[in-house]
Write a structure and sequence with these properties.
Elements lengths: L1 H14 L1 H5 L3 E4 L1 H11 L1 H21 L5 E10 L3 E4 L6 E4 L4 E14 L3 H67 L5 H36 L6 E4 L12 H11 L1 H21 L5 E12 L12 E11 L4 H70 L5 H36 L3
Parallel strand pairs: 1-6
Antiparallel strand pairs: 2-5, 3-4, 5-7, 7-8
Helix pairs in contact: 1-5, 3-5, 4-5, 5-6, 5-8, 5-10, 7-9, 7-10, 8-9, 9-10
Main location: membrane
Protein name: TolC family protein
Family: Belongs to the outer membrane factor (OMF) (TC 1.B.17) family.
């Protein structure tokens, strides 16, 4: 198959020298295309940022282990105090220092809450792992997308080679028809039919050339290559596993598919969520300490325009009594979410099994189809040679010759497409297992 690509490339360079000499030609395998897409595809760059966000969120959650420290100050105007008799008959104004201020520093450290902080960190770590699995899933999607585009380029090159080869045969046949016409052996309409056959082939070549330009441009964008890079596929259908068996791919999918791993990770998150909810039933124990400085001193008479300072430290214990009847409902919700996560795992396994089964069956079908179409191609080539010999000996008419050529052209195109389909179905099978 590599020889075919080299032949096709030579034909294209001969037909369009300006195109190729002005472009960078890059020969690539499907694996190289996939690797380049992983490094440069914009979608994966966006997905990778989710991992950075998840990691930073884990760092933020870890901050709960650090003490909470607050500092405060206030500056205020203190008005004169008024002393009033119990029967409100007399009142006395007591002068006060009018300027007042206070300063305070307070620190609090959580000591115990049923492991809430550690469990929250573990939850954030699980979400971080989930974002990594999402990136892996996106990698699989992008790889298959660019490989599919790459194989379309490959298919177009094969088709161009088929059309160019058939055009050469049509041109040779036209020369023979023109000789017959000059000798008076055929009429002018036979020459016209030969010329029309070449024009039809030229139309096909033009369409394929433009399709290849579009495919090549899109592939360059996906791979981060310069837009004018000419990608030449060199992938071979040889050495692609075809006899390993479906059980191997099923086992591979259950071990490697990121969708299944994500479903399992979501179940772990549901378990951790229940643990976090249950910490509501635990008391909160915290240590605290602080220092305050306040002016004036108003706790004695006369009032002193001086600072009063003091510090304190201790342990606080608190318990939310409402958790006795609220937490059990939250736990019930968590259990329902866990049950749903279990069912999602089962559903994901079933979908993966169906996907692998379909992909494996289609891969085997593609191999068998290629063999069948290869036989059809040989028969069409044999029929063409027989009809051509009959035509040159005036034992067949031009219509029979054109019909034989069309059959030959179609069989060669079908076989070229079948070879590419084998490659596509192989990579689709790998993608279904999550190992592309």
């Amino acid at each position: 198959m590599t020889k075919k690509i080299k032949t096709a490339l030579s034909l294209l360079i001969a037909a369009f020298p300006a195109l190729f000499f002005s472009q960078q030609i890059k020969q690539m395998t499907a694996g190289e295309v996939a690797e380049l897409a992983v490094r440069n595809h914009q979608q994966l760059k966006v997905s990778a940022q989710n991992i950075d966000i998840a990691k930073q969120n884990t760092n933020v959650v870890k901050l709960q282990k650090l003490p909470t420290i607050t500092a405060s100050t206030s500056q205020f105007y203190l008005g004169d105090a008024v002393a009033i008799d119990k029967d409100f008959s007399n009142s006395t104004t007591i002068p006060m220092p009018h300027y007042g201020s206070s300063y305070a520093v307070q620190a609090t450290q959580l000591i115990f809450k049923g492991g809430l902080v550690n469990k929250s960190v573990e939850m954030a770590s699980l979400r971080e792992q989930l974002s990594e699995l999402d990136l892996e899933k996106n990698k699989q999607d992008v790889k298959l997308l660019v490989i599919s585009n790459y194989l379309d380029v490959y298919k177009t090159l094969n088709q161009q080679e088929v059309f160019q080869n058939n055009k050469k045969l049509a041109q040779e046949r036209l020369k023979n028809i023109q000789k017959f016409y000059q000798q008076g052996m055929v009429t002018r309409n036979e020459v016209i039919r030969g010329e029309l056959a070449i024009k039809n082939l030229d139309q096909g070549i033009l369409t394929l050339s433009n399709n290849k330009k579009i495919l090549n441009y899109n592939l360059n964008i996906a791979l981060g290559l310069p837009p004018d890079t000419e990608i030449v596929p060199t992938e071979s259908i040889e050495n692609k596993e075809s006899g390993i068996g479906m059980d191997y791919y099923m086992s591979l999918a259950h071990d490697s598919n990121p969708l299944l791993k994500s479903a399992q990770k979501n179940r772990a998150i549901a378990d951790k969520n229940i643990e976090i909810i249950k910490t509501d039933n635990m008391p909160t124990i915290a240590g605290f300490g602080g220092y305050t400085l306040q002016r004036p001193i108003t706790t004695r008479n006369p009032v002193l325009d001086m600072y009063s300072g003091g510090w304190q430290t201790g342990v606080s214990l608190s318990y939310n009594i409402d958790t006795l009847y609220k937490t059990k409902e939250k736990v019930k919700l968590g259990e329902l979410q866990k049950n749903q996560a279990d069912d999602v795992i089962t559903l994901t396994e079933q979908n993966i099994d169906m996907g692998v089964n379909a992909a494996y069956t289609k891969y085997q079908e593609a191999i068998q189809q290629a063999d069948i179409l290869n036989d059809s191609k040989r028969l069409a080539e044999e029929n063409y040679k027989i009809t051509e010999a009959k035509y040159l000996n005036q034992l067949a008419v031009q219509a029979e010759m054109i019909d034989a050529q069309n059959q030959k052209l179609q069989s060669e195109l079908d076989y070229a497409n079948a070879e590419i389909n084998v490659l596509y179905q192989y990579y689709n099978l790998l993608k279904s297992t999550g190992t592309l």
